[in-house]
Amino acid sequence: MTTMPSLDSLDGVLHRVGSDRSDAFLPALTVQNHAANLAYLPDGTLTCVWFGGTMEGMGDISVYLSRLAPGAQRWSAPEKLSDDDGKSEQNPLLFVAPDGAVWLLHTSQTSGHQDGSVVKRRISHDGGLTFGPVETLWDVPGTFVRQPIVVNGRGEWLLPLFRCIGIPGERWTGDADFASVLVSVDHGASWTMHDLPESIGAVHMNIVPLGGDEMVAFFRHRFAERIQRSRSHDGGRNWSPPEPTTLPNNNSSVQAIRCADGQIAIVYNHVDASASTDRRLSLYDDIEDTAGDAEAASTPEPADRRKAIWGVPRAPLSLAFSKDGGQTFGERIDLETGDGYCLTNNSKDGLNREFSYPSILEAPDNSLEIAFTYFRRAIKHVRLDRR
Prior knowledge:
Number of strands: 26
Radius of gyration: 19 Å
Number of helices: 1
Distance between the termini: 26 Å
């Protein structure tokens, strides 16, 4: 199915659609739903968090959560977990700490100004049933999260993030963004920031432990060429400069995990800038119409700076596997196909047709749980059996 689902059709029920696949559209309360992240709660409940509202960047964008209890076939009604009507609250993720506390993290920004974003936190001490007050985890403007926290062998917490850098006199478009890691040695009470070398254009850092102190990370590429890859040999404090993998990227999010059999599974859009001439100025063209935005947009830009590429179609959505730590990828499966049109974020009128921002987990029975944006109207869940 490649038509836009109506809100009434988002019933949350898992339906068998093949010998090894089941699909569901998560229930939703808003016309736009985007940026899913999956996590298991301590009791085994599969959860999905995402942001929803009228359009990314608007003040009504908030974080939502839905649950799929062990053995259940229907996702629960969404729960609203953020509610600052002056901020766009985006890119949520859940983290189950070693002590069992469940952390919710998300970004908070005004309009399309990602270079002013900070990271917020709420903590649950009852297994994710309820969450405590909103706190600021990191208040350096331009800090953005997308991928889960990882705990290394020494018990240090690693929060991958990317820095949205504002250039004086210009509107943010992502040209100068780079990767960093927040490290905590005291269970999240305090953090230190560690920037990755030579990482301009490498964002959405996704850390995958390989065993011991060995780690690999994968990145979205602002310049829409290839998924980027970096290595750490010291448990995630120091990283090599990101380098291109063999997989294309369209300046849209990717996510990878290491499966129980040792393979890395990654979900991504198998397309890059060379496949299409579709372009847009920035992610927030639909809403950036203030006087300040107009003045910034009219400022001449340096000709020698690489420009982030926006608007490359976000389809197909594909799953690929690597047996060598992400150096090469073999088997590939297309999970969704279509034209992937994303020159606008408008889902209310059915204009956006992207499949994007995937999240992936391996279930206890080795099946793969995948969630992603479907036309910015819905979050779709796909379960792939691998037994």
